[in-house]
Amino acid sequence: MASPILSALFIVFALLLAGYLLQRSRRIPDNAADVLNRFVIDLCVPATILRVVPKLTLGAGLVVLVVVPWAIAGLAYLLTFTAGRVFKLDRTHRVALFLATALGNTSFLGFPLCSALLGERSVPLAAVYDQLGSFLLLSTLAPVVLAGVGGGPPPRPREIVRRVLTFPPFIALVVALLPLPHPAVLEPLYASAGSALVPLAMVAVGMKLRLTPPRPLSVFALGLALKLLVLPCAAWALVRALGAPPLIAKVAVLETAMPMMMTAGALMMAYDIATELAAAWVGWGLVISLATVPAWAFVVR
What is the model's pTM? Predict the structure, then answer.
């Protein structure tokens, strides 16, 4: 049972360490992490979407796995909006907190952890949660939210629509969902480009990683508490209220309990949104989730 978990975590920490050591060595340009992040968002994520989404088949019982991530994202928005008022956070920190809590690491960590803790039958269910939940949220809501951050007047609706429609992961998602032929000859290309997602994203995060907790510490701690404790509890209550089948309910809770999505962290750093917080949420979230995700697996059992 421990082998898939240990293997995934070893890869994550090795890549984080490699990025951190590269940054400390001063052997790379200062903007290297930004270049890697842009490569991940513009090439690796679209390739992954084009490879996985056309293979999914939905049934009535799987609707819960689509409803839960979107409902959790809505709750994350309400909680971060409330926290912004209580702690008097600026718009940048509110957006950072929302992305950190609404988007989880539901594929690279989610798949092996679900397989190890719930069995191999859970992996296809986790893929539905990931693709129609996390990735769809990343492709649609993330650019809209990020469009409202920055100086000057709020962006016009036309500008927001333009940014969404030109966001590479969104374009890939639309193409993947259309009833178009998907030539098998392109599969190796998608697999090759998509395989670079985790290494490049984690190395980029490692370049931004700091061993001391970032400031503001209150926002950092709040993001971890919401992502790893509060929102999984809400997901557990939701699947029980919906009467979800046992395995689907367990997958929904565990996927919600995953730490912050690496690609979301890369996206925040690419847009220069709370970069230290983004790197810390990804790095420290991975460490703390070693205890919290197995704990949630025990609870849902």
Answer: 0.76
